[in-house]
Design goal:
Length: 160
């Protein structure tokens, strides 16, 4: 059985800035008001016969959202971004473009990109790993990270 959480109605949202290096339109710093839809699949279990408690899932996803919220998202594994300083001011370049940002304005992520695709994979992996610690009956976590209303990337993290 699956449970479904709609990110707009359940307030699983964050607003962040990012860039897609060297992309014709998305190469400059710009922002999105993201929302995160979640599906969790597994066996019903426990005293209440839940797949998983909605409140638990929302709490975990909100925590991830709040790490990203009102930050510039920077992918540490990017092939296009050359990081020059990560202690104190965050300094990096993309081609000939030089950037220097205060660390409190940045969220450094262990990703190759901050596309909706990579963010969806990030959320799904994080949520799956945390849920699995306490509930072995869960078989998959599906996350859609929406860049505003009408477009999003969907990633499925399943048991191996
Ligand atoms: Zn964008």
């Amino acid at each position: 059985m699956k449970i479904v959480i709609n990110g707009i109605h359940a307030n699983l949202r964050f607003s962040s800035a990012h860039m897609i290096p060297k992309h014709q339109f998305c190469g400059g710093i710009h922002g999105h008001s993201y929302h995160v839809d979640v599906v969790v699949e597994g066996e019903r279990s426990g005293k209440f016969g839940f797949v998983v408690d909605f409140k638990e899932v929302k709490g975990i996803v909100r925590q991830i959202c709040s790490k990203l919220d009102h930050k510039v998202l920077l992918p540490l594994k990017s092939d296009e971004i050359e990081f020059k300083n990560l202690e104190g001011p965050i300094e990096f370049s993309i081609g000939l473009k030089e950037y220097k940002l205060p660390p409190e304005d940045c969220c450094l992520l262990p990703l190759h990109s901050t596309s909706a695709e990579d963010l969806a994979e990030f959320f799904a992996e994080e949520l799956y790993n945390i849920l699995k610690e306490s509930d072995d009956e869960i078989t998959s976590v599906q996350v859609c990270v929406n860049e505003g209303i009408g477009q999003g990337a969907y990633f499925v993290k399943e048991d191996d």
